[in-house]
Write a structure and sequence with these properties.
Blueprint: H1 2-19, E1 22-23, E2 30-33, E3 38-40, E4 50-56, H2 61-81, E5 83-89, H3 99-106, E6 111-114, H4 119-123, E7 131-135, E8 140-146, H5 152-168
Parallel strand pairs: 4-5, 5-6
Antiparallel strand pairs: 1-8, 2-3, 2-6, 4-7, 7-8
Helix pairs in contact: 2-5
């Protein structure tokens, strides 16, 4: 019975989020990629593709578990949903030096940005990490969650599938 209640709640949560979209007003804010390139976050609204935006830190175990889980299926999702994953490190100036070696050791193959001052984090009203947003190709936040639970990649997959179905109609 408990499983049925959770399934029903999850179904309504996804449908509510997919049909009550909020346009993201991301200002011109330049962050650095781990490769040292400048990345204007306002471009996220102009991608015309689904964007998974995940705020994390090297010291956050749930963040690492979440990004590892997503990383395992990311290449498949790119092909199936034309999705872009952007991981925003909120490591401060004391721990930011660990980000690049950490990402390389994990073999993560997605864009990683530095938000050492927390400007982007504040703009997106992120309080706790991990904090994941899914932004559709029109710049609308259609889903978000905080914390990590095992199997979250399955929930994200279902949301991506709903977005694709909705865009095909």
């Amino acid at each position: 019975m408990k499983i049925l209640q959770v399934a029903i709640l999850f179904f309504f949560k996804i449908n509510f989020l997919l049909y009550s979209q909020n346009k993201v007003a991301i200002p011109d804010l330049e962050l650095k990629t781990i490769d040292g390139k400048v990345f204007n976050v306002a471009l996220i609204n102009k991608y015309n593709k689904i964007v998974i935006l995940d705020f994390w830190a090297t010291w956050c175990k749930p963040c690492i578990l979440e990004l590892n889980a997503i990383s395992e299926v990311y290449e498949e999702w790119k092909k199936e949903f034309n999705v872009e994953l952007i991981a925003v490190s909120v490591d401060d100036s004391k721990s930011v030096g660990r980000v690049l070696p950490f990402v390389k050791s994990k073999g993560w193959n997605f864009t990683v940005l530095y938000d050492t001052n927390g400007d982007f984090k504040r703009i997106m009203n992120v309080i706790n990490i991990p904090h994941l947003f899914i932004i559709d190709g029109n710049g609308n936040i259609v889903y978000q969650h905080t914390t990590y639970s095992e199997g979250v990649e399955n929930e994200i997959y279902r949301v991506l599938k709903k977005i694709k179905e909705k865009s095909n109609n």
